[in-house]
Amino acid sequence: MGNLDKALGFYEDDIKLTKELYAAYPNNVEFKNGLAISYSKLGETHTSLGNLDKALGFYEDDIKLTKELYAAYPNNVSFKNGLAISYYKLGAFSRDNLKDKAKARAYFKQAEILWLELVRDAPQYVQFQKFLGILQREMKALD
User: Which residues of the chain does CATH 1.25.40 include?
Assistant: First the structure.
């Protein structure tokens, strides 16, 4: 609703609680996934606030956890989609904030590979096709 400082406070509270839950129950994949999502949200918020170093750190924390989740559960459609989204966000961040088209292209390519597989293997989820279309338009715009 436009109050980024307030949002940041809520996300920081969420991260604190989610870290505690994950530390207490490290085998609970939902806590790990929740932590990854919280990192992503903090990355978005810090990007909007112009704190680019902090944002990048949170995006990197997010992708580390989502890679671990996907590696442990490669057949989990949500984790695979989450990893694709994480790659997409890092690609957009690299393009828009770091002005690094090569890095953006590399992250976008990783997201594309995952979404192509998801579209093929889970066609009932039309959202994957939508994400793939958006991503491919953005990849073409990099050229």
Answer: 1-73
d(CA 27, CA 85): 23
Residue 1 has pLDDT above 80, yes or no: no
pTM above 0.85, yes or no: yes
Residue 60 pLDDT > 80? yes
**Ranges in the chain annotated CATH 1.20.58:** 77-143
CATH of 1-73, one of 1.25.40, 2.60.120, 1.10.540, 3.30.70: 1.25.40
Domain 77-143 carries which CATH code?
1.20.58
Give residue 64's pLDDT: 97
* H or E element at residue 115: helix 101-121
The rounded distance, in Å, linking the Cα atoms of 112 and 8 is: 30
pLDDT at 85 over 80: yes
> 14: how many CB neighbours lie within 10 A of its CB?
16
Please give the DSSP secondary-structure letter assigned to residue 99.
-
| Average pLDDT taken over every residue of the chain | 93
Contact present, 64 and 32 (Cβ < 8 Å): no
